[in-house]
Design a protein that fits this description.
This protein is about 40% helix and about 15% strand. It is of the alpha/beta class. Bound molecules: pyridoxal-5'-phosphate (PLP). Pyridoxal-5'-phosphate binds next to helix 3.
Length: about 375
C-alpha cells in the first residue's frame, strides 16, 4: 500500500480489510438476531453464518459439518490440541506460539537450516510415542514463509497411527489449502486473508471436547453466541481466495525484486529459507550488527511497516524461536526482520523500503 506517507509491508501480522469483506460486514450489522433463536430474526442471522461456513468449506475442501468457528487461529489451535483425544503430542519447534503453548510436555522436533521440519527426528519421536499421538506441523511458517513437507508428514504419521494437525493460518490465500490432503484438523484465521480480527475456524474430523462450554453452539464443539459479523466477513474474504492466489505471481516478482535489492545493498545479509519452497509474499532476513528493533524503528520513521520476526513476539527482545529452531545463533536472530507483502503492494513500496533500509546496511558495512 503506497500512499503518500505509508507502505504497509506486514501482511503476515495482519492484512488490511478487503473491500468485499468490509461491505459484507457492514450489511450484516443490520441483522441483529441470535443465530440460535428459532424466530425469523434468528433464522436470518443463522443463514448468514451458514452461508459463510459454505464459503469456507468450498475454499478449503472441508465439509461444512467439519468447520467450527472460533475467535481466531490461536483458539483454533488450542481447541484442536486440547479438545482431541491423544496419548501424546509431537510438535514442530517452528510452530506458532499458540500451538507450542497448547501442547505442554509435547516432544518438540527441530528444523533444518532452511526452516523445514526434521522428518528423521519426527519419525524417531513417532516411534517412541504412545499411540495415538498427535503431530502438529504447520503448512507455511509465519516468520520465514517456508512451506512444510506436509505430504511426507502425513505419510509418516499414518504409518504410526498418528493424527495430524495443520496450522494453515498463513497459508490460506497464499498457497492452495486442501483439507482432503490427509490432515485430521486445520486452523484458519480471518484477519490474515482480509477479514476481521478475532474470528477464525478449526476444521476438525472426529470427536472434539469443547474447551469453552455453555450453550450447544457449533455442534457442541464451541459454546458462545457466534460472532456473526466477523463470520460473515470471513466468508466474504474466503470467497476472494482464488483472486488472492491469482495475484501471487505478481507478489512473488515484487518480493524477489526486494530480495535482490537487499542482496545488492548488503551482501552480508542472510535470507532465511532462500532456495526452498516459501510463501511468495514473505521475506525474512538478518543484517549483522543492526538489531531488529533498530531496523523496524528506522523503517517506521520512513513510513514503512515491517516486523521483527512474528508480531506476537515483537516488542520483546528475545530472539525468534523459529530462527533458533533452525540453528541460527541468538545474536544473529536478534538482527532479523520480516517483510511481508500483499494485494496492495506495488513497486513503489519496495522502493520506499529499500531507500530507508539501504543506509542501515551501508552503515553496518562501514
Ligand atoms: N498461527 C499462525 C501461523 C499465525 O501466524 C497466527 C497469527 O499470527 C496465529 C496462528 C494466530 O492467529 P490469530 O491472530 O487469529 O489468533
Amino acid at each position: 500500500m503506497a500512499d503518500a506517507a505509508h507502505s504497509y509491508l506486514d501482511y503476515n501480522a495482519t492484512a488490511p480489510l478487503l473491500p468485499q469483506a468490509e461491505a459484507a460486514v457492514r450489511e450484516s450489522l443490520g441483522v441483529f438476531g441470535n443465530p440460535s433463536s428459532v424466530h425469523g430474526a434468528g433464522r436470518r442471522a443463522r443463514a448468514l453464518v451458514e452461508d459463510a461456513r459454505e464459503q469456507i468449506a468450498a475454499h478449503t475442501g472441508a465439509s461444512t459439518a467439519e468447520i467450527v468457528f472460533t475467535s481466531g487461529g490461536t483458539e483454533a489451535n488450542a481447541l484442536a490440541l486440547k479438545g482431541g483425544h491423544y496419548a501424546a503430542m509431537i510438535v514442530a519447534g517452528i510452530e506458532h506460539a499458540s500451538v507450542l503453548a497448547a501442547a505442554p510436555g509435547a516432544a518438540v522436533v527441530g528444523a533444518n537450516a532452511q526452516g523445514i521440519v526434521d522428518l528423521d527426528a519426527l519419525e524417531d519421536a513417532l516411534k517412541s510415542a504412545p499411540r495415538p499421538a498427535l503431530v502438529a506441523v504447520m503448512l507455511a511458517n509465519n516468520e520465514t514463509g517456508v512451506l512444510q513437507p506436509l505430504d511426507a508428514v502425513i505419510a509418516l504419521a499414518k504409518t504410526y497411527g498418528a493424527f495430524v494437525h495443520c496450522d494453515a493460518v498463513q497459508a490460506l490465500g497464499k498457497v492452495p489449502v486442501d483439507f482432503t490432503s490427509g490432515v485430521d484438523s486445520m486452523s484458519l484465521s480471518a484477519h490474515k486473508i482480509g477479514g476481521l480480527k478475532g474470528v477464525g475456524a478449526l476444521i476438525y474430523r472426529g470427536d472434539l471436547d469443547a474447551q469453552i462450554a455453555g450453550g450447544g453452539q457449533e455442534r457442541r464443539r464451541r459454546a458462545g453466541t457466534e460472532n456473526v459479523a466477523g463470520i460473515v466477513g470471513f466468508g466474504a474474504a474466503a470467497r476472494e481466495v482464488p483472486r488472492l492466489l491469482a495475484d501471487m505471481p505478481r507478489i512473488r516478482a515484487l518480493r524477489d525484486s526486494l530480495e535482490s535489492k537487499v542482496r545488492a545493498a548488503a551482501p552480508q545479509a542472510r535470507i532465511y529459507g532462500e532456495g526452498t519452497p516459501r510463501l511468495a509474499n514473505t521475506s525474512c532476513f538478518s543484517l549483522a550488527n543492526v538489531s531488529s528493533e533498530t531496523q523496524v524503528m528506522r523503517l517506521d520513521l520512513a513510513g514503512v511497516s515491517i516486523s521483527a520476526g512474528s508480531a506476537c513476539s515483537s516488542g520483546k527482545i528475545a530472539p525468534s524461536h523459529v530462527l533458533l529452531a533452525m540453528g541460527v545463533n541468538p545474536a544473529e536472530a536478534k538482527t532479523a526482520v520480516r517483510v511481508s507483502l500483499g494485494w496492495t503492494t506495488r513497486e513503489a513500496d519496495v522502493a520506499r523500503f529499500i531507500d530507508a533500509w539501504q543506509p542501515l546496511a551501508l552503515n553496518a558495512a562501514a
